[in-house]
Amino acid sequence: MAAPHTHRQYAQLLLIDIYQLPSETRAAVIHADRNITTGMVMALEIQARSTKLQVVAGYESGHTMVFVQTDPGAQFQRLYCAQPHSQPVLSMAILPSQDCYLTTSADAIVAKHPLPAAQGIWKTELKPLKVVQTKHSGQQGLQVRSDGKIFATAGWDARVRVYSSKTMKELAVLKWHKVGCYSTAFAEIGNFSPIEAEDDSAVKREDTEGQDIVRTAAVNLVQQRREARARSTHWLAAGSKDGKISLWDIY
C-alpha cells in the first residue's frame, strides 16, 4: 500500500510511504525531488509486477511522477515526470493493459501518460501521450472499466462524463445529480452464462403433485434470468455531494 507520509516532523519532505499488509509495517520510502516544487501528494496508485513495484503519484503543483523499485529493498527510481496540469491532480488510474495511466485535475485537463517500466525503463519519452482540454474543470473520481475501453470522471458541475480510453474523446455526459459528483465505479465486465432457453420446458412440464411446483419453478426461472441480466449489464455508479448514488447502464 502507498500513502503520503503522515508524520508531522517529516511532512515538509513530501515523502511517500510503502506499507506491507496485513502487518502494516513500512517497507520503503520514496523521497521527493528537491529540485522540483511539487506541493503535497494528492493521489497515488501502486501496482506490482513480479519483484517490481511501480508507484504513480500526482501532486498539488499539477506534476505526476512514476517511481519504480526493481528489487525488494532497493531504492525507488523516478522514471517519469510531467506537468500537464496547472492545478492540483485530483485523481488517476492505471489502465488494465498496464502500459499507461490517466490523470485528472482541478483544471479542465485529462491526460494520458506512459508507464515507463512497461515500455523499457530508459526508453520512454518524458512527455504525456495525450493531453485533452475538456473545458470542464474539477473532474475527479477517475475510474477505468475492467476491459480498458472506457473511463469515467465525476465533475464538480454535477455531471458524470464517459470517455474513450483509446481516443480520449467524450462519449457521454450523464445528468441527474443537482450538486457536485465526487466518485465513480464500474461493474466488472465478465463472461456470464445466460439462462438456457430449454429451461422453459421445466416450467411447462406437468407435475404429478400439482401445479405448485411448476409455479415455483417459473418464479425461480424468472428470478435467475433477472439476476443473470443484472450481472451482465455494464453498470456505472456515481456518488454525489447530495449523498445519492446514481446507477447507469452504459455501453
Provide the fold topology:
Elements: E1 2-4, E2 16-20, E3 25-30, E4 41-49, E5 52-59, E6 64-69, E7 77-82, E8 89-94, E9 100-105, E10 109-114, H1 116-119, E11 130-133, E12 139-144, E13 150-155, E14 159-164, E15 170-175, E16 181-186, H2 200-204, H3 212-232, E17 235-240, E18 245-249
Antiparallel strand pairs: 1-2, 2-3, 4-5, 5-6, 6-7, 8-9, 9-10, 10-11, 12-13, 13-14, 14-15, 16-17, 17-18
What is the number of helical segments per DSSP (H or I, 4+ residues)? 3
- Weakly predicted, low-confidence segments: 194-208
Rg over C-alpha atoms, rounded to the nearest angstrom: 23 Å
- The counted number of beta strands is 18
Which properties best describe this structure?
251 residues; mainly beta; four-stranded antiparallel sheet; 3 helices
Describe the structure in your own words.
By secondary structure, the protein is mainly beta. The protein has helices at residues 116-119, 200-204, 212-232; strands spanning 2-4, 16-20, 25-30, 41-49, 52-59, 64-69, 77-82, 89-94, 100-105, 109-114, 130-133, 139-144, 150-155, 159-164, 170-175, 181-186, 235-240, 245-249. A hairpin with a 5-residue loop joins strand 8 and strand 9 (100-105).
Outline:
With 251 residues, the chain is mainly beta. It is built from three helices and 18 strands.
